[in-house]
Amino acid sequence: MQKIQKVAILGAGAMGSYFAGKFFDTTGFSTVLIATGRRLDKLKTNGLVVNGKSYAIPAIHPDEATSTVDLIIVTLKHHHLKKAVQGLEKLISDSTTIMSVMNGLESEEYIGSIYGMDKMLYTISVAIDAVRHGNQTIYTKPGKHYFGEAVNTTNLSQRVLCVQEAFDRAGIVYETPEDMIRMMWWKFMINVGVNQASAVMRAPFGVFQKSPEAQGLMEELMKEVIALTDIMGVNLTNRDIEEWYSFLKVLSPQGKTSMLQDIEAGRKTEIEIFGGKIVELGKTHGVKTPANQTVLQIIQVLEQYPE
User: Fold this and answer.
1) Residues 297, 196, 232, CA angle at the centre, nearest 5°?
2) 250, 205 in Cβ contact below 8 A?
3) Same domain assignment for residues 147 and 204
4) What does DSSP assign to residue 272?
5) Which of 132, 154, 178 is the last residue of a domain?
6) Taking Cα atoms as reference points, which of 252, 226, 228, 259 lies closest to residue 240?
7) Are residues 25 and 164 in the same domain?
8) How many Å apart are CA 258 and CA 268, to the nearest integer?
9) pLDDT for 237-262, tens place per residue?
């Protein structure tokens, strides 16, 4: 495969702004933002501001693409995925790699069902404390980004090697685990715990770094994920919760989860793919999920009656 030079970002929120800024700042990359409708108009008018630096990154409608790109990074909210990921054909060739840095467990398969799973790499980002207000994103910790094929045990695929090389050039910290599916579930467990607990308690990361009560709720939510993985053959354990604390302790105390940011802004949250998914899987597999059931109902009410 050819060296990655052309990068497109679909979803210029906090995470998308981070990736866009890193690639735009690096010589050798051509970076573009993909959007439609009002979002496209805002990007063309206001651009992006990341850690106080203004970026005039080109923003285009996917129909306006004049050539394919080497890498597409998708950083959408779950409820925007089905509409926003349509119509990317002008950007995609056989050699294009697509990475979905989205929450949940289903975006890779959905995007792959349209453009081919052979183009997809599984991806998660952990411990980036980016916060977005309007077109401005601030982060103090860039986090670590895990990606790869489902299994990466022997020779790495050319897609993985090309993205590793691109991330090296852009200064993006990454790792390619042997078992990427397990890593996806680990990140899912983290999100189910800290995203939901932070939303119902309006608590930034600093609260979870210090409060045993906040940690207790977060862990109860996570343990219900672990109980499900026992049945589903993923094999998460309580040690995986302990591993999360090593990431949590270095986050900015003022940093906020994406779900808390959504609640505070009166936006739709991703509760369906967190608590909703756990409750659904619990019913399917006969696993009790009372903590997630309760938090699901609370967040649904907060969505219906924003302040």
Assistant:
1) 90
2) no
3) no
4) G
5) 178
6) 226
7) yes
8) 11
9) 999 999 999 999 999 999 999 999 99
Residue 167's pLDDT band, with cuts at 50, 70 and 90, is: very high
pLDDT of 55 reads 97
- Domain with residue 134: its CATH number is 3.40.50.720
Q: Which amino acid is at 213?
A: E
pLDDT in tens, 12-30: 999 999 999 999 999 999 9
User: What's this model's pTM, rounded to 2 decimal places?
Assistant: 0.94
The whole-angstrom separation of Cα 2 and Cα 148 is: 18
Note whether 203 and 255 are within 8 A (CB).
Answer: no
Domain end residue (candidates: 163, 178, 193): 178
Q: What is the pLDDT of residue 306?
A: 84
Structural domain containing residue 59: 6-178
Tally the domains of the chain. 2
Residues 6+ apart with CB under 8 A from 285: 228, 231, 232
Please give the residue that has the higher pLDDT: either 143 or 154.
Answer: 143
| Mean pLDDT of the region 165-170 | 98
User: Is 235:229 a contact under the CB 8 Å cutoff?
Assistant: yes
Structure tokens at 220: 């109860």
Residue 129 lies in a domain: yes
Domain of 208: which CATH number?
1.10.1040.10
